[in-house]
Amino acid sequence: MSTTTVANHEEHHDHPTGIMRWLTTTNHKDIGTMYLTFSLVMFLVGGSMILGIRAELFKPGLQLMNPDFFNQLIGVHALIMIFAALMPAATGFANWMLPLQIGAPDMALPRLNNWGFWLLPPSAILLTLPFTLALFGIGDGALATGWTFYPPLSIQGGIGVDFAIFAIHLLGISSVLGSINIIVTLFNMRAPGMTLMKMPMFAWGWLITAFLLIATIPVLAGAVTMLLTDRHFGTHFFNAAGGGDPIMFQHLFWFFGHPEVYILLLPVWGFIPQILQTFSRKPMYGYKAQVYSLWAIGALAVVVWAHHFFTAGMPVPALLYFMYSTMAISLPLAVLFFCWIKTMWKGSMTFETPMLFAVGWIILFGIGGLTGLVLADVAADAQYHNSYFVVAHFHYTLFAGGIMGIMAGVYYWLPKMTGNMYDEKLGKWHFWLTAISFNLTFIPQFFVGLAGMPRRIPDYALQFAEFNMISSISAFALGLSQLLFVYVIIKCVKGGKKATDKVWEGAEGLEWTLSSPPPYHSFTEQPIVK
Amino acid sequence: MEPVIDPKSDSNDVRRKTKAEQDKANSKLAIKMIWVAAGSLLFAFALVPLYDVLCSITGLNGKTDNNAATLNKAKVDESRSVTVQFTAAVMPGLGWNFYPKQTSITLHPGQIETVLFEAKNITSQIVTGQAIPSVTPGVASVYLKKIECFCFVNQSLKPGETKIMPLRFFIDPAIPKDVSEMTLSYSFFEAAKK
After folding, report:
1. CA distance to partner chain A, nearest, from residue B116 (Å)
2. What does the pLDDT look like over B28-52, one tens digit per residue?
3. What is the CATH number of the domain that holds A507?
4. What is the pLDDT of residue B65?
5. Which whole-number Å values give the CA distances from B48 to A224, A238, B51, in the listed order?
6. Superfamily for B82-190?
7. What is the ipTM, given to two decimal places?
8. A247 neighbourhood in chain B, CB within 8 Å
9. Which of B3, B26, B40 sits opposite A214 (nearest CB)?
10. Is the pLDDT of residue A399 over 70?
11. Could you tell me where the DSSP H helices lie in A12-118?
12. Which band of pLDDT confidence, cut at 50, 70 and 90, is reported for residue B8?
């Protein structure tokens, strides 16, 4: 079957080899691989930063670091995990899989694609360089404001803030370029006959993500630019002394920041249903309902931002509006949950590693969603705001809902990408270690949060000691389990049982019609879809 | 909703685009999308004046009107009274002492009152400061009318100088019935250097 689709790949255009191959490549598979590798490396970097935090929080009192360094680790951990680990992972999958899924020969704008990736390593360096500079006595370290950059703290901060602002600019340009590429690819490059409503769900998830990105990332870029001019060029956007308003920054930031949450999750909501249908061996339930729900969530995402700072002061009608609109998001999300569960209902299910991650993902992400409803309540939020309850909530959505979802995707597509089966036994070990240690890390944080432990503080009251100890030990277990993940991936890349073209018995879709691994140039003649 | 794939068929109703057609369509759509991104960057800066307009209408951010209110001839509403509390803060970088001479006042809406604040420069240099007011609850901020205030202009103090600064104000009788207490806070900043 694959022979007709790879007709032209014999003709060679002298590819550069070695490092130049990767620097100059415009091939969507190469770029996808680079995105995914970069994401994995930064995931480990961001993870080791938070292990520093958990080591400090192992016991009350200050043992390992001064509070300023603690603050730097927290802020950079978040920025790295969001912008350098989760987003590039999703973009990596988009590069690898979208052209294969829609029967396109490559992404629509291959050169832009290359540039989009190569902006990432410099921005990662910008984020982490201030740590190193501080060791040599230059500046006072990375930004210590938390990832949200709130003024007046960020106006007073050291050069770390400037580094982070420029990193955000580069990361922003990179994601906007990536998004434009994805929109153009999905609108223009689909195989003849594949209407929008025949697109795979992953393509839908990414299409909405891409629109959210080009609508909101420039707002963040604008906000941090204002911050930069406030810091160095005498403007007063956020400087109260000159008539500015620090609260306005919170509005601008979260106008980007809330859609960002869905930017991180929508691609995952795209491919998880595909994994569920593969291992349930029956068609996806409620395709149309899912597409409409994704759009509804995408639209609601941009009108609910102020629920992140209910306590900053707002008129009651505004509080009510933001509370009800936030809670309204749970309706389309409930439709999605229903469709995901109904897809598995009465299917002949098997539990290979991707399916374990997908099912575990539904449960854990569900907990993240439900605890979000608690925080959306204005009255309850006054109590829980800025506590560890919030930290636990968004790690259930972003670690379980984001990263564990991405891991499901990695195991699902790794045999397709490498041509080798991964080690199923180790994969299962990785799932169980991750799921158990993740819960043991964050469930105690719900408890200490409810009891009033504030986030972003290096010290805490003695009453929280036991829960923090459990949380820290589990966090190290969670971190070490990820080394197993790296090992499984490396082992799979190096060799293993050959994967068949279809890889999974129940797999459906164009990417499974190609060989494993797919040829360097695929679909040079587009297939016709009926 | 899985597509049925038939790579061999070349039916008449669907046709593959040529390379040139494809490239043209791609760059057209890409340019449109760049305009969208540029538009949202503009939108970010447009939000700054929009936010100010919204705040002055709703009192969202607790800012009071920083222009002198015209003397109000409206009747004093003696049927109820409002307590206004005063707090004062000096922001980092400004070497002043600054506090209100009285911490609260109870008055009828429409009644004009004067409250005094005292500032002292404890440095050995001439320092210029600017006071920024903020009212809690925010909804009350638009009803606090200032006839005269030290916050309307920069205040300059010589080394060691003490200055008594007046605030003359009234509460608009249109203030919602459920507001019986409000806090007026002044933060003194070092005036931004011109």
Report:
1. 21
2. 999 999 999 999 999 999 988 888 8
3. 1.20.210.10
4. 67
5. 13, 10, 5
6. Ctag/Cox11 (2.60.370.10)
7. 0.84
8. 61
9. B40
10. yes
11. 19-24, 28-56, 67-79, 87-102, 110-118
12. low
